[in-house]
Amino acid sequence: MINLRKPKIVILGAGYGGLMTATRLQKQVGVNEADIVLVNKNDYHYETTWLHEASAGTLHHDRVRYDVREVIDTQKVEFVQATVEEIKHEENRVILDSGEISYDYLVISLGAESETFGIKGLKEYAFSIVNVNAARQIREHIEYQFATYNTEAEKKDERLTIVVGGAGFTGIEFLGELSNRIPELCKEYDVDFHKVKVICVEAAPMVLPGFDPELVNYATSYLEKKGVEFRIGTAIKEATPDGIIVAKGEDEVEEIKASTVVWAAGVRGNSVIEKSGIEAMRGRVKVNLDLRVPGKENLFIVGDCSLIINEEINRPYPPTAQIAMQQGEICARNIVALIRGKNELETFEFDNKGTVCSLGEDEAIGTAFGKKFVGAKASFLKKMIDNRALYMIGGPSLVFKKGKFNIF
Ligand code: FAD
Ligand code: NAD
Question: Which in 21, 199, 210, 250 has the greatest CB count within 10 A?
C-alpha cells in the first residue's frame, strides 16, 4: 500500500542552527514532499553572537533581533511560538508549554545555557549573557548602579565595580564593549572614571586559553589600557549579594566587592536534552557525523546541543555559530535525502573560516585565511563575519536591515 501521508519535519529552536536548517529545507523540499514546522520560544531570532553588545549597552537589543517570519517562507514552514519542555523521543512527540507536536524527523537546535559548575551563589547573584532578556537586564542593572551612585549620601564604590568571570571569548568581547560604554556612563551620570573598576577573573593561567599568544597579548594590553584589571589564575569560588569570593593561593580566599557580576565562564547544552533522557555530557550529545543521535534514525542535533570530536586534537569542537550554521546546512540535506528514500548521508567536516574576537566597536584580534589580524582590519573582518551570518540566513535584504556598516 502506498503511504500518502507527508513526512513531518520539526525543528526546535530558531537560532543559527535551526534557522539554517529551516531556510535550507524550505529551498530544497517541495510543498508536497513534507510538512515543516519550526518551534521557537520567542517570535524573534536573536544574534547570540551580538549579545555582549546589547548587554553592555553599546547596541540596542532591537538591533540584535528580528522576526523569525522575516526569513522563513510561511507557505512552506509553519512557525509555532512555544517553549519546548520535553522531547518524548521514544514516541516521536515533543511536549510544548502550549500542547504537543508529533514528528517523523526532529532537529534539536535549542542552543546553550550558562554552565555554573555548581558554584555557590552564581545562579542567584550573577548575570549571564544568554539571551535578549538577560542582555537587557545586564544593561539596565549597570546603568542603574551608575544612576544611583551620586544619589547616596554615603558613596558605595562597589556600585561602580563590575566583575566579569572568565576571560574566554565571551568575557573578552564583553570587556571590549564595556570599555567603550563606561566613559559614556561616567559622562551621563557625572561619575569620576577613576572610581570605576572593571575586574576580569580568569581561572586559567592566561587570557583566552589556547588562542594565539601574540594576539592574546595584544588584547590584554589593549583592554588594560582601557582600565580593565585582569586577575589571571584566579578561580571564582562563590558569588554573594556583595560580590564574589575568589581562591587566593592554596587555602586562602579573598572577597571582591562588586554590585555587578557577569558570569561568562562557560556554557552547556540546553537542559531540555537531559530532561528528555538523551545521553549527554553537560547537555551536549555526542552525535554521529551525519548529525544523528546514535541509534536514532530520525533525530538530528545541531549547534550547541551537539558534540563532535575534533580528531586532530582529540577534543570536542567548541560550540560556535560557525559550526552550528555548517551543521544546519548538512542536516537539511540529510533530511532531504532521507525523505527521498536515500540512505547515503553526508558527514560533517568542519570548514574552519577562522576566529575573530572583537574588543569593542573598532578593535579586534583574529585569525583567518592563515593570517593574524589586529586593530581596525580585524574589526572590519568581524563585521563582515556578522554580516555574512545574516546573509546566509536572510539574504541581502536582512543584511541591509540589520547589517553592520559602520566599518571604518
Ligand atoms: P542559538 O543560536 O543560541 O539558538 C537557540 C534558539 O533556541 C534560540 O532562538 C532560543 O530562543 C531557542 N530556545 C532555547 N530554549 C528553548 C526552548 N526550551 N523552547 C523553544 N525555543 C528555545 N560563535 C561564533 O562562531 N562566533 C562568534 O563571534 C561568537 N560570538 C559569541 C558571542 C557571545 C556573547 C556568545 C554568548 C556566544 C558567541 N558565539 C560565537 C557562540 C554562538 O553564539 C553559539 O555557538 C551559537 O549561537 C549556537 O547556535 P545554536 O543554533 O545552537 O543556538
Ligand atoms: P569558554 O568556555 O570558552 O571560556 C570560559 C572561561 O572561563 C575559560 O577561560 C575558563 O578558564 C574560565 N573559567 C571557568 N571557570 C572559572 C572560574 N570558576 N573562575 C574564573 N574563570 C573560570 O566560554 P565562552 O567564552 O562563554 O565561550 C563559549 C563558546 O562560544 C566557545 O565555544 C567560544 O569559542 C564561543 N564564542 C566565540 C566567540 C568568537 O568567536 N568571537 C565569542 C564568544 C563566544
Answer: 21
